[in-house]
Amino acid sequence: MATLIPTLGSARFDSRGELRLAERLKDFLEDNACVWHNLPVGPRGRHPDFVIIHPGQGILVLEAKDWRMDSLLSANKNEVELLTARGPVRELSPFEQARGYMFEVVRTIERDPQLVFEPGHPFKGRPILPFGFGVVFTNITRKQFEQTDLREVFPSERCVFRDEMTETADAEAFRARLWRMVSPRIRPPLSMPQFDRLRALLFPEVRIRQIALPFDEPEEDNADRVLAVMDLQQEQLARSLGEGHRIVRGVAGSGKTLILAFRAEYLARAASKPVLVLCYANGIAGRLENAMQERGVEDRVQVSTFHSWCYRMLRTYGIAAPSEKEIPDYEERLAASVNAVIDAVERGHIPGGQYDAVLIDEAHDFEPQWLALAAKMVDPDKRALMIVYDDMQAIYRGRARPVWKQLGIDAKGRTTVLKINYRNTAQILSFARRFAAEVIGAPGVPADDESAVLLPEDAGRQGLEPVVRKCVSFEAEAHAIAEWLHARRQAGYEWAQMAVLYPEHHIGDVFARVLAGHGMPVDVVKSNRNRITIQLPAVRLLTMHTAKGLEFPCVAVGGLGALGRHGTSIEDDVRFAYVAITRATHEAMLTYSRVSPLVERLVA
User: Fold this and answer.
1) What is the per-residue pLDDT across 260-280, written as a single tens digit (0 to 9) for each?
2) Residues in contact with 388: Cβ distance below 8 Å, sequence separation at least 6, in sequence order
3) Cβ neighbours of 166 (radius 10 Å)
4) Domains by residue range for the chain, with CATH
5) What is the pLDDT of residues 322-358, one digit of tens each?
6) Torsion of CA 40, 42, 44, 50, to 10 degrees
7) Global pTM value
8) Which residues are registered as beta bridge partners of 246?
9) For residue 98, with 0-12 CB atoms within 10 Å meaning exposed, 13-18 middle and 19 or more buried, which class applies?
């Protein structure tokens, strides 16, 4: 059974015949075949009906036509004349149409030197995979076709007819007919990295580097498939979400933010009102804002932290925001501004339904009333609300798991769970999961089980085991971290690919002083309200709070023994440590100089 993107339930078909063909392709093609329906291909965004890729067989472009024999008035090799409700109409021949789409695909592939034959080969510069095209006539049988003169202008070997694509048709014969339309194979099947390079060329929106990895990868990882493009499950989900309220639960590193960005771009291109993306921290907001700019929809998508958006609503509608003089405490002032917006919306001073769509990242850090407020901002005719969260990362205290319906969010039966971690190596993930599972639970949670916490079930890559170091003081931890970072630098990582995390600012001050004394550039990020400038060539120093949503190839987590000193529970400490460790995509180091219940679990 092939992978169909989008899924049958969410794709928009122009005719019943096109739907039947999609069903046959899904059911009759091989398991490793992928079928994309009516999606823009390549830089010019052409829309073939179907693009089929099989690593061994090649690439095939199909056009589907629901014509009946009595509607075909005449045809030649270039065009056809059809009888329609508007009278006779001339159209491009479907074979010329499919052939044009195929050559658009070929020209796109030829842009990548890794997907064409090398210099010196007889087919230098041509794609290394076979390609072909064909037409499916969903309402004409082969017998009807052969009784006409159409066979003189329509190549029968590039045709599939209604009687050859029924539910009871022979699947093997169906496959053979399709693959005969493709040129002979003269190279081994595509490798998985080549397959994903091909997907990234044909469908550039599946590339994830600019969203998931804000820092350049080491040279040897440039072909790493799990870091280059969305995997097929992620792409299928992103293209198949459909309308209405949607909830995506995902483990750390499963591509939640990537899918949200894909969805925001998709909705923005068809939107008449702005699309709003809300986050909790500025780090993720900055990444998403950059992604929207790179995708060319920054004028249609507004990216903001929730509290910044609240302040903007108050300014826009002339409502006084709480001042520092009135409420000196910053956190209390934030809460008061949110309450002012909620009150203004209830009174009608701030209108609801302002946006064609609202998408919420980091929803695990949103208060229930914030989610209810955001839901009111969605145009009720569009109902395009998407909520993305990972309750394992809900490290801010006081956040209760919401009851969606009570908040005006109707997502029953529309919750998707992502369990595969693509960010971390198997070793980092196993290390983080080993101590977290003992406190929070085991993996294997059904989509609708809101009571259980999701833990990842798999990871994409192999790597090094995290290093755990016991020291005598915070300063000694800093020296150990500095030595480890210097070793990472010698291994080929850049300073900007490294980060040091810690639970409290005073620990970070010690770390910054010692690391600077070791001659390395440091950038101390004091608050999640500060956006990180990724071009700065320096090691980032952040609190565990501030690091949420960010990731770096090399991460040192220090001062772990300080967790729990202010009365936090062991579960809170585990969440902190879990989130911190999983910020590392390649290598991790953990240090402690005080023994605590959390440390005892880490070193057990």
Assistant:
1) 998 998 899 888 999 999 998
2) 247, 248, 250, 256, 257, 259, 260, 359, 360, 361, 362, 363
3) 11
4) 3-205 (no CATH), 241-418 (3.40.50.300), 460-602 (3.40.50.300)
5) 998 899 998 899 999 999 999 999 999 999 999 999 9
6) -40
7) 0.70
8) 386
9) buried
